[in-house]
Amino acid sequence: MKHKKQIGKEEVKLNKPALSPVTSGSLVPSWHAWLVFIVGAMVYANTLFHDFTQDDAIVIYDNMFTTQGVKGLPGLFKYDTFYGFFKEEGKANLVSGGRYRPFTPAMFAVEYSLVGNKPFLGHLLNILYYGLLCFLLYKTLQTIFEVRFNNATYQNFPLIAALIFAVHPLHTEVVANIKGRDEIMSLMASLFALYGVFKAYDTGQKKYLIAAAVSMFIGLLSKENTITFVAVIPLALYFFRNISVPKAIAASAWIWPPVILFLLIRTSVLGFDMGGTPMELMNNPYIKLSGNEYIPFSTGEKMATILYTLGKYLVLLVFPHPLTHDYYPRHIDIMTFASPMVLLSLLAYVGLIYLAWKGFKSRSITSFSILYFLLTTSIISNIVFPIGTNMSERFMFMPSVGFAMLLAFILVEYVAPRMSAKGVLGITAAICLLFSIKTVARNTVWKNDDTLFLTDVHTSKRSAKVLNAAGGALTTSAPNEKDPVKQQKMYSQAVEYLDEAIKIHPTYKNAYLIRGNALFYLKRYDDAIRSYEMCTKLSPDFTDAYKNMAVAMREAGKAAGEQQNNLVKAEGYLQRSLQLNPNDPETVRLLGIAYGMQQKHDLALQQFLKVAQMTPDNAQAFVNLHHAYRNVGNEGMAQQSLQKAMTIDKDIMQKQGR
Q: Virtual CA dihedral for 434, 439, 441, 446, nearest 10 degrees?
């Protein structure tokens, strides 16, 4: 195939710049690609010593396959990606459609074999892979555009686009979170497949097609978004090699076998079910509470909410502030077409589609950039199929290439004619500096879960999920606070966050559980018990709620007896606690004391006998039994119990001041 010689035969009239081919890289310094690599890596250097965060638990340190190291590799390829975390059938399909992305968990398993449960290597590799991705983006753009640009100004286009992509703040969730490597590898593999098809077309060498097919398969195993390049690759050939659509499809036919193979494997693992409509708000943002049950949005509400979200993506691409890891309900509220923002978003996308259509025949770069953006956004839009959440910044990782290309083209096409090429690079440097400052600052928020949750809760003030997470972060970190006043404030703030989460999502069982824990530490035992009871009402098999409720009832009983001197109330709490956890020796002991103080000595004796049986090495249990026997008039057994206590601890009586 001598395609470069055939370009003139099939050439249609195109917009500027000129179409005459140039030798690849003839006007471009070789260090440009390495500059992009260095910039991409350096803006994330401050994540190197961060902890695991967010979804790292699912694919790394709490995944039963990943934590086996290389021995767990078969399990990672055999099951849904979530299976190794939930460790039971069914729960892996909580999000519609399931997830089959074994490639990056396999990478994590190998890393786990090398360094164990330590995040440093994961962060280092994410930084390097991201730098390599930026390098590849530059090389790919240089390759596919080389026959479009034949002057110094336009030769800077790949550099400008790659630099804008490298520093864009929307990418922080992907690079700073180790789990985000699935996005990095997916886009890297997709771009390499695009690069390979173009090299094969330009040189006629089949080895590039083989490399493209292998890369496409790796990308699909990393994340399903890669499948959008089935359309992107022939589209790029049509736009930048000046051939017809049928010929472009034929030239990229080698990418189809790996796609078909992946779909067959995925179907064999996950089945044909793409998921129904989960009626849990944290897994389906398009449901609303009606009375006491959740029902789906109306068609108008759903489409309006999706349009609003798509518009928000456009805003964040241009002005990436404020950023948050959490866009769960109701950070994105229920929208209707009466909302001006929905209508503006609709107008913006209609405009983009019009520009893409208008420039399609003339093969304009504006048209290609928009079509690339729309194609790669489609799979995460919630229009094609549900993805389990309204939006996420990481979903713009692949589409943001289209934004970077469009912005770069605006600079070289419309700004460059009014100033020198150096002037355009100066503007690019200013944009990149502003983006870099935001990126580096945002990276610090991803230091650990507590920092992430307690920062983003101030942005996502209406997200039940982050309110719940912030409440949990405060509840688990408060015990480490030595200042009792600050500690109480932390628990109180946790309750406030969790109350808000429950207002947004009244059936959020996990929020009730954590709220109960915070109230327990505040010694508001009755409120804690009610919170745990709500957990069990929502989920009758919620084991943790029953366990915590038993402890709360025990402590409530202890407080009623010791602080309120209300023995009847104490007895009631302790009996209820024992119904939930009959094998807790402390509850049995406290009930024995409550009986004894009410002169119910026979009942007290029964409880102390149970404690002695439960804790046969506990000297104090036999001292209590000694007193119980004396109270019922059995001096012989009382002395035997005392001797047993002294056998265990000869100084037990002295310790009690006797």
A: 170
Q: Please give the model's pTM, rounded to 2 decimal places.
A: 0.91
Give the C-alpha separation, 297 to 337, whole Å.
13
Interatomic CA distance for residues 221 and 214, integer angstroms: 11
Domain ranges of the chain: 3-269, 287-444
- DSSP track, 316-373: HHHS--S--S---TTSS----TT-HHHHHHHHHHHHHHHHHHHTTTTT-HHHHHHHHH
pLDDT digits (tens, 9 = 90+) for 547-602: 999 999 999 999 999 999 999 999 999 999 999 999 999 999 999 999 999 999 99
Q: CA 154 to CA 150: how far, in whole Å?
A: 7
Q: Work out the burial of residue 116: count CB atoms within 10 Å of its CB; fewer than 13 is exposed, 13-18 middle, 19 or more buried.
A: exposed
What is the CB-side half-sphere exposure of residue 260 using CA atoms within 13 A? 5
Write down the residue that tokens 């068609």 correspond to: 299
Q: Which residue has the tokens 């700073």?
A: 176
Please write the tens of the pLDDT for every residue from 1-12: 444 433 333 333
Q: Which residue has the tokens 């928020």?
A: 445
User: What phi, psi does 99 have (nearest 5°)?
Assistant: -140, 125
DSSP H or E stretch at residue 13: none
Which of 169, 69, 56 is CA-nearest to residue 122? 56
Burial state string for 347-366 with b = 16 or more CB within 10 A and e = fewer than 16:
eebeebeebbeebbeebbbb
Asked if 386 and 302 count as a contact pair (C-beta separation under 8 A), the reply is no
How many residues are recorded in the chain? 658
User: What is the C-alpha radius of gyration for the chain, rounded to an integer number of angstroms?
Assistant: 32
